[in-house]
Amino acid sequence: MHYLSRLTFAIGSVMLMLLAVLLAAFGMSGLIETLLHSWQDGQKAVVHAISYVVISMAVFDVAKYFMEEEVILSRGKQTLAEARTSLTKFITSIIIAVFVEGLVGIFETNKESPATILYPASLLLVATGDRACARHLSETERDSRTREKAGKFNGLRKAFL
């Protein structure tokens, strides 16, 4: 069952990576096609291309996370510090993608219809809250590593005393 799980994550990760590359390629091809036809429409096409590339990078990072954690490093139980480090990296990449997507959304709605700015603004607020959670995870991870090191030092001190 463990091997079936690893195989499923491997296939899913490779599929996500390929789809992420395709999404970035579509974003760039749309930008190039728009710039070849009309230079004036280029600004909107650049914003859309940025959006496609950011989403594709987030999808690729999720696939990379699954590949690393579930396929390559699939070893069962890990220490709390390792789990926190892994989770912090994963959450940080998602938060960055949400931030950039929110900024792209604000640029898109700024000129077209200011009434629709609530969605991208809410993305930025959610990303800010998520960043606070990620910071808390990071600080907790650092504190647990400090406690582990202090415990090892106390053990060594007791051994020599």
Structural summary, described in words:
With 161 residues, the protein is mainly α. 89% of the residues lie in helices and 0% in strands. The chain is flat.
End-to-end CA span: 49 Å
Mean pLDDT: 77
Using only CA atoms, what is the Rg? 22 Å
Return the structural class. Answer: mainly alpha
| Beta-strand fraction estimate | under 5%
Order of SSEs: HHHH
Query: Which overall shape is indicated by the principal axes computed on the Cα atoms?
Result: flat
Biggest sheet statistics: none
Number of helices: 4
Oligomer: single chain
Question: Helix share of residues?
Answer: over 70%
Low-confidence stretches: none
The number of strands is 0
What key phrases describe this protein's structure?
mainly alpha
Please render the helix and strand layout as text.
Layout: H1 2-37, H2 42-72, H3 80-112, H4 118-160
Helix pairs in contact: 1-2, 2-3, 3-4
Concise summary:
It contains 4 helices and no strands.
